[in-house]
């Protein structure tokens, strides 16, 4: 890969849901959602990601190896309900590639590997503090897609 590649930017953080939020008919409160900002905008504002949640553990695991991960799922946690497929995450020397699939559609992103790993580490530190306080990161129960 050339050093001239324009990388997508990624910001990961846990957002506290104190007041009731309804997502795909499901009510959430007193929990945390994993927020994903790509190129400065929340992915959840795009119709492609509508009524979905980021899967905390899968995104953390994607920082250590290439493979297929359930990065996003339906608000209920059942991937097939939202049409979510496993996403392909590929690490090379300089970058981390995401091919996020939902049904027959996909989104491709390329992140700087150094920046990606820093975001994963920052997210782990934030989660450690939240888990110490007994916080719940939604979705709690995940059912992977049948592929």
Task: Provide the fold topology.
Layout: E1 10-17, E2 21-23, E3 26-28, E4 31-38, E5 41-42, E6 52-54, H1 56-61, E7 67-69, E8 72-74, E9 87-91, E10 95-102, E11 105-112, H2 113-132, E12 137-138
Parallel strand pairs: 4-12
Antiparallel strand pairs: 1-4, 2-3, 4-5, 6-8, 7-9, 9-10, 10-11
What can you tell me about this protein's structure?
By secondary structure, this protein is an alpha+beta fold. Strands 1, 4, 5 and 12 form a 4-stranded mixed beta sheet that branches. The protein has a 4-stranded antiparallel beta sheet with strand order 7-9-10-11. It has one domain. It has helices at residues 56-61, 113-132, and strands at residues 10-17, 21-23, 26-28, 31-38, 41-42, 52-54, 67-69, 72-74, 87-91, 95-102, 105-112, 137-138. The radius of gyration is 15 Å and the shape is globular. It is built from 2 helices and 12 strands.
List keywords for this structure.
four-stranded mixed β-sheet; alpha+beta; 2 helices; 147 residues; single chain; 12 strands; four-stranded antiparallel β-sheet; globular
Summarize the structure.
This protein has 147 residues and is α+β, with helices and mostly antiparallel strands.
């Amino acid at each position: 890969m050339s050093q001239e590649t324009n990388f997508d930017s990624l910001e990961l953080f846990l957002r506290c849901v104190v007041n009731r939020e309804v997502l795909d008919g499901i009510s959430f409160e007193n929990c945390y959602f994993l927020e994903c900002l790509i190129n400065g905008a929340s992915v959840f504002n795009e119709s492609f990601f509508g009524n979905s949640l980021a899967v905390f553990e899968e995104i953390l695991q994607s920082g250590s190896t290439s493979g297929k991960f359930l990065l996003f799922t339906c608000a209920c946690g059942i991937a097939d309900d939202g049409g979510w497929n496993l996403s392909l995450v590929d690490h090379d020397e300089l970058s981390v590639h995401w091919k996020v699939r939902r049904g027959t559609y996909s989104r491709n992103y390329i992140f700087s590997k150094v920046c990606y790993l820093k975001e994963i580490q920052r997210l782990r530190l934030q989660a450690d503090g939240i888990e110490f306080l007994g916080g719940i990161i939604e979705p709690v129960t995940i059912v992977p897609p049948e592929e």
